[in-house]
Design a protein that fits this description.
CATH architecture: 3-Layer(aba) Sandwich
Number of strands: 9
Strand order of the largest sheet: 1-2-3-5-4-6-7-8-9
Strand content: 15-25%
CATH topology: Rossmann fold
Low-confidence stretches: none
Largest sheet: 9 strands, mixed
Radius of gyration: 18 Å
CATH superfamily: Alpha/Beta hydrolase fold, catalytic domain
Distance between the termini: 45 Å
Number of helices: 11
Number of domains: 1
Shape: globular
Length: 300
């Protein structure tokens, strides 16, 4: 059976997602990756996925975590990213996960782990390479992406999650204006983090800080930060970069001048995509570059 048909049949058997099939990629929305009986929640948790329609080689995987202050936002935020990455040869997914009102820290991390483990469980049917999985997040999702990457092999985190662990290691992580140093966020956003963490006192939130888990064996990390960001100040990304440097963690830190919390210029993402491609063996950088060049040509 062709790879596309196999993937399509598996995903439709797990839920009743909507699907859009173009000449090059397929986008499927609302694929259930865990059920209420497994997540102690009132409804299935779902993911949107996109993948190329052709090719026999196992695909690298990229996971997108949306922003929203740990208690809002939507997986729909990642739709354009999924399309771009699928065109670049990835199995791309944007996941729904529980936030502060649904249990906070423990449930959020558990959902991220469950989504990754779901993909790995069906690696043959989905035609993915379990050794090439990366994670990207925006704002609070950036914090979650980096936290997941730094803590993935840590026994303390495993204990906090009732011994739940990842079935396959994350190969790299990227943060887009991510709240990677929540301890020093502006008061409003620090308060939101405190509620999400579930800690009794602010000085006891360190278990939810990515910096708590940094060590030299961490997956490579890419930090993209707007110089004028008022939500997650650029100095915090620089502070985290310095901590990674002290612990000898492979990483890149890029500041975008004259840019705030929302980075809209497509070319500003080229470095991040090059970083991801270098670790996951995809072709997203060339895909975006072609789009930019075509858009520029159409304006001339």
């Amino acid at each position: 059976m062709p790879i596309l048909a196999t993937i399509f049949l598996l995903l439709t058997s797990l839920a009743q997602p909507s699907a859009e099939v173009s000449n090059q990629i397929t986008l499927m929305r609302d694929v259930a990756y865990t059920t209420p009986s497994l997540n102690s929640f009132h409804k299935p948790l779902t993911m949107d996925v996109a993948f190329p329609n052709s090719g026999d080689e196992p695909l690298p995987v990229i996971i997108y975590l949306h922003g929203g202050g740990w208690d809002g936002g939507s997986k729909n935020e990642g739709e354009r990213f999924l399309s771009l990455m699928a065109h670049g040869g990835y199995f791309a997914t944007s996941i729904e996960f529980r936030g502060t009102k649904e249990g906070g820290f423990k449930n959020t991390l558990s959902d991220i782990y469950s989504a990754i483990n779901f993909i790995v469980k069906y690696k043959s049917e989905l035609n993915i390479d379990p050794d090439l999985i990366g994670i990207v997040g925006y704002s609070s999702g950036g914090h979650l992406a980096v936290l997941s990457a730094c803590s993935q092999n840590n026994q303390k985190m495993k204990s906090l999650l009732d011994e739940q662990s990842l079935a396959s290691s994350l190969k790299c992580a990227a943060s887009i204006n991510g709240a990677v140093v929540p301890k020093y966020l502006p008061s409003q956003h620090k308060s939101a983090f405190f509620k999400w963490s579930g800690a009794e006192k602010e000085r006891e939130m360190d278990f939810a800080y990515p910096s708590t888990y940094i060590d030299k064996n961490d997956a490579p990390i890419y930090l993209l930060s707007g110089k004028e960001d008022k939500v997650v100040p650029n100095r915090l990304a620089r502070q985290f970069s310095n901590e990674l440097k002290r612990k000898n963690v492979d990483h890149e830190f890029v500041t975008i001048q004259k840019t705030g919390h929302v980075i809209t210029e497509p070319s500003h993402y080229l470095g991040m995509l090059s970083f991801i491609d270098s670790h996951l063996k995809g072709n997203a950088h060339a895909t975006l570059l072609k789009v930019i060049q075509e858009d520029t040509g159409s304006m001339e």
